[in-house]
Design goal:
Elements: E1 2-4, E2 9-17, H1 21-24, H2 27-40, E3 50-54, E4 63-70, E5 73-80, E6 85-92, H3 98-109, E7 113-121, E8 128-130
Antiparallel strand pairs: 1-8, 2-6, 2-7, 3-4, 4-5, 5-6
Length: 133
């Protein structure tokens, strides 16, 4: 028997304002989030996070950028400590606890004004699954 999905997978995008600037500027904290989150949401981390400090042409754009590759796709973040803001993307080819992931990330950065965007990617992606007999 074949089972068909509606799309490729969920893409959770978080625009988090009024965050704790100390956390936003902490390279180890950002590494830790990207390192621990995959297991917390049932994903398979296939690389160590790559996290680095970014220095832009405008000093207030300085921050931390990071990504970890998961078997299911990726998790990325871009922080702006001077603006108390972070963008986080979590894209997966399999369903996950979106609310749990959102709550964990919002609490991690201590955001007081989160904006959450969720979309189903790849609605026209041709995909079928065979169930084991």
């Amino acid at each position: 028997m074949k089972k068909t999905r509606n799309g490729y997978g969920p893409h959770l995008m978080l625009d988090l304002g009024e965050c704790n600037p100390v956390i936003l500027n902490d390279l180890d904290a950002c590494f830790g989030l990207l390192n621990e989150l995959p297991e917390k949401i049932g994903m398979t981390k296939i690389t160590q996070p790559y996290v680095f400090r970014y220095h832009g042409q405008i000093p207030e754009d300085d921050g931390i950028t990071g990504v970890t590759i998961i078997a299911e796709s990726h998790i990325s973040l871009h922080t702006y400590p001077e603006k108390n803001f972070v963008f986080v993307d979590l894209f997966s080819c399999k369903p996950f606890d979106v609310e749990g992931a959102k709550d964990y990330i919002v609490q991690f950065f201590q955001s007081k004004s989160p904006s959450v965007h969720l979309c189903e990617r790849g609605l026209s992606f041709p995909q079928t699954y065979k169930q084991a007999a």
